Amino acid sequence: MAIASKDFTKVVHAGVHPEPITGAVMTPIFQTSTYAQTAPGEHTGYDYSRAKNPTRDALETAFAALEGSTYGLAFSSGLAAEHAIAQILPANCEIIICDDVYGGTGRMFRQLFAKYGITAHFVDMNRLESISEKISSRTKMIWVETPTNPTLKVVDIKAVAKIAKSHHITLVVDNTFSSPVFQSPLQLGADIVVHSTTKYIGGHSDLIGGAIMTSSKELYDQLQFIQYAGGAVPSPLECFLLLRSIKTLVVRMQQHEKNGMAVAKFLESHKKVAKVYYPGLPSHPQHAVAMEQMRGFSGMVSFDFKGSYDEVLVFIKKLKLFCLAESLGGVESLINHPEKMTHASVPEELRKKLGIGPTLLRLSVGIEASEDLIADLQQAFA
Ligand code: PLP
After folding, report:
1. What is the pLDDT of residues 132-185, one digit of tens each?
2. Where would you tag: which of 6, 10, 192, 312 has the fewest CB atoms within 10 A of its CB?
3. Residue from 99, 100, 174, 376 carrying the catalytic annotation
4. Domains in the chain: ranges and CATH
5. CB atoms within 10 A of CB 47
6. Which residues line ligand 1 (CB under 6 A)?
7. pLDDT tens track for 307-337
8. Exposure string over 101-134, b if 16+ CB within 10 A, otherwise e
9. Whole-prediction pTM
């Protein structure tokens, strides 16, 4: 699918300017905790690195450029970013959230925020009525993840935004699986976008990070205060690595999509595969919505293995290029068993309802040659 050519320019230049003293083309790693003051309270605008750091400033500008937002904020992990968003909620309110969000997101609301009286209703957002049915005067936030992890359901962001706006409810979209290259939730009506930058934005499986983007000054002020007062900031080295990664985001995503599509088509034609989950395939139940709101489909492909759990284990062992590991979005291909790994914290009953069973596998298709990846899968099936 076509990516706007301006995206190529944006990712190469986002947030980075030659450093004023030396002219260094890459933003330096300002590895400092504190800054000299000329008199008590008189400083350059930088007084302590939890509050402000030049490498992080550059990254936050780049984040905003990626999502076309006014503001960007960097966090020490995707969950730290999500935790900051959840902290804008008042006690004893309600939120409505996709039923198959990332396991850690569900766990955060179930186990950390329930004690403040915050009730999270987990609903199937492919049935828009299921959102409307749960709205009450206490509903303060709707939380969408699309495509979802791991069954890659696609939620219609524009339709959910319409419901959220009509009830003055804040809409959050986790855009991790698409990356900003393939989906722009703020343009579709979301108020806040969140990313685990550990995934596609980082892209090299070598860091943990999170991002928040918003164009609302009111939300930014609250979130920025939580970032400062809560303190879950990334290190200057992590900020530098992310700035470097962002420069290749478009070219990486194009290769992820090309390989993802090739692998999804191969799996769909294989007799040992019962079902493939990939929004780019016409067989995907929300393919039409995906075509409408996404510019591409990334390298995330899930499938149901036709066979027993023991056969699944043999298949995983035989793979040579796909490494068995949690996480996703890196240049190298990974395979994950959601039931036993990333989604083990999801209550068993909900896992069953969502189809996260012993034979479900999730691939993060990397940027290797697609024929090598398909050959690897083929020999493991054989
Ligand atoms: N959102 C999604 C969709 C994820 O897949 C993950 C982690 O896998 C997170 C958020 C949490 O990010 P992190 O692991 O960087 O805290």
Report:
1. 999 999 999 999 999 998 999 999 999 999 999 999 999 999 999 999 999 999
2. 6
3. 174
4. 5-246 (3.40.640.10), 249-381 (3.90.1150.10)
5. 15
6. 77-79, 102, 104-105, 145, 149, 174, 176-177, 196, 198, 208, 210
7. 999 999 999 999 999 999 999 999 999 999 9
8. bbbbbbbbbeeebeeeebbbbbbbbbebeebeeb
9. 0.96
